[in-house]
Amino acid sequence: MLAAADAIVVAARWPFTQERITRSLEGVTLSGVRIGSFRQTFLPFPGCIAENVVVSRGPVPLGRIRRLSIQSSWAARIRLSHDLRRVRAEGLQLMLPAHTPPPQRASAGASETNVREIIAGGAIVEVARGSGKPPLRFQFPELRLQNVGMQKKMEFRIAARQPLPQGRVWTAGTFGPWNAEDPGRTELSGSFKFHEADLATLDGVDGTLHAQGSFTGTLGAVQVRGHADTMEFGIKEKPNRVRLTTQYSCIVNAVTGDVVIEAVEARFLDTMLRVNGRVAGEPGKSGKTATLQFKADRARIEDLLRLFTSSPRPALSGAIVLRADVTAPPGDAPFLRRVRLNGGFRIQQARFMTLGTRDKVDKLSARARGEELEKNGADEPGTVAANLSGRALLRGGVARLSDVLFEVPGATARGGGTYDVISKQVNLKGALSLDVGLSEMTGGLKSILLKPLELFMRKNSRGGSVVPVSITGTVSRPVFKWSLTRKSGSGD
Questions:
Q1: What percent of the chain has pLDDT over 90?
Q2: Contact assessment for residue 126 and residue 136, using Cβ atoms and an 8 Å cutoff
Q3: CA angle 286-287-291, nearest 5°?
């Protein structure tokens, strides 16, 4: 009689009916749910199988499940508990539109159901981007959740293929308990590996990235630390590639996708850069803007130039100290046209590696000192070392240079102008201060003709001439000019 009474109670509260499963799914998704076919199971475990499950909000489909299997245990049914042994979702596909319709149902409150294991290997998530772009497609060959419940700390193990940057991700850790009042305060921790990420799927850069690290915190502020190794890193429009290694620490808002970059230490060739900043988007707008601060105290100008030039041999070598604020907004224009920069630089003991430029600089220094030029081999670096410094404001691929200082033994030039980082066109104007008079830089008839003109030219503290000069052409083929008719002022 007791067994019969218990069986009646269990049957009366039997949860695995199509109506109750539909209602439960609608309460969880806050959407309408339609089940194509349904059958209950009793042996070896009580439960049910629902096929062709469709989740939608009005006319907008949000997800499909080809086969949903739910298993409980007879012990749980006798206790009338809400515990489930296993839930398996086969052929799960989520479609997230650019603008998700509002919920069709009110929240049912916190669920009392606890699930020992959820398996959804083979799941696909597609995120619409609008503007005629194809959706982002995330694939999950492995998706396993354990100890699942609103008041539980869930364990997860996930293998995924993500689209941007395209690559494979493995992650494992814990999540929860879920904070219904403020989801951003839900706890999260674990570790990850990012393998063979193709940076060419991103805008502006190229290379293959491998990364690993750990994360801990809450959904609204996940502390992420790790390191990455990028092979063949470079700017997409340029042929030169380097190996880039980084150590990083950042805070990720998993609710909005924004990132605060606390510290990144990047190394390539003989250069080390330190970076901090943030990557964030504005509500209602697609894409995110990167706002970064760069510092380089141990860097080489030839390493930096290698990334932005097509020549296998940079035109300049030397130690550089760099400070720059860089902003890279989203958009369809080429990266070098979109990126904005405001910073300053100082290059010590720079040597020009291009034969034509090297000879011109060596000749300038020798003549400015009133000496003869010593010839060197075509493949040797310049005999004269130069110091350069200045400030740069980059907009639309054109850098506006100011407070530019160029020093070689015997001569100092100050001025400013523009430099097109894409075409490499240079347009600089300024004043060249010499150690000697202009007539002493030449010999023969030119020296005699220039002697009277020095009476009308400005002199520096050393008694040498101050001559208006300009540099045009390209970095690899510069054209140097000086003028005796234009006034030499610092405003150029």
A1: 38
A2: yes
A3: 135
**272 within 8 A of 299, measured Cβ to Cβ:** yes
Given a contact cutoff of 8 angstroms between Cβ atoms, the answer to whether 21 and 70 are in contact is: yes
Q: Which of 51-65, 214-228, 368-382, 403-417 has the highest mean pLDDT?
A: 214-228
Burial of residue 345 (CB within 10 Å: 0-12, 13-18, 19+) is buried
In the chain, the N- to C-terminal Cα span, in Å, equals 105
Residue 210's SS3 state is strand
| Tokens of residue 278, six digits | 């943030």
pLDDT at position 435 is: 78
Lowest pLDDT segment from 231-235, 308-312, 447-451, 476-480: 447-451
> Do 105 and 27 touch, CB atoms closer than 8 A?
yes
Three-state secondary structure call for residue 19: helix
Cα pseudo-dihedral 197, 199, 200, 204, rounded to 10? 170
Partners of 246 in the beta sheet? 228, 266
Q: 10 Å Cβ neighbour count for 287?
A: 12
Query: Residue 35: how many CA atoms within 13 Å on its side-chain side?
Result: 20
The identity of residue 66, as a single letter, is: R
Please give the average per-residue pLDDT across 64-93, as a whole number: 86
Question: Of the candidates 335, 338, 260, which has an alpha carbon nearest to the alpha carbon of residue 293?
Answer: 260
What does the block give as tokens for 460? 């520096």
pLDDT in tens, 340-385: 999 999 998 888 877 777 777 887 777 777 776 555 544 454 568 8
Burial of 132 (0-12, 13-18, 19+ CB in 10 A): exposed
Report which secondary-structure segment, H or E, holds 258: none
Spatial distance between the Cα atoms of 234 and 291, rounded to a whole number of angstroms: 20
Beta strands in 58-186 (DSSP E): 60-71, 83-84, 86-90, 93-96, 114-119, 123-127, 136-148, 154-163, 166-175
**130 falls in which pLDDT band (50, 70, 90)?**
low
Given a contact cutoff of 8 angstroms between Cβ atoms, the answer to whether 380 and 352 are in contact is no
Query: Residue 291's CB: how many other CB atoms inside 10 A?
Result: 17
Provide the 10 A C-beta neighbour count for residue 459.
13
| Residue listed under structure tokens 């590696």 | 353
AA letter at 275: V
Q: What is the largest distance, in Å, between two alpha-carbon atoms of the chain?
A: 130
180 or 343, which is more confident? 343
Q: To 5 degrees, how large is the angle CA 241–CA 245–CA 246? A: 130
Q: How many CB atoms lie within 10 A of CB 380?
A: 12
Question: Which one-letter amino acid corresponds to residue 130?
Answer: G
3-state DSSP helix/strand/coil % of the chain, to nearest 5: 15, 50, 30
Query: Up-side HSE of residue 225: CA atoms within 13 Å toward CB?
Result: 4
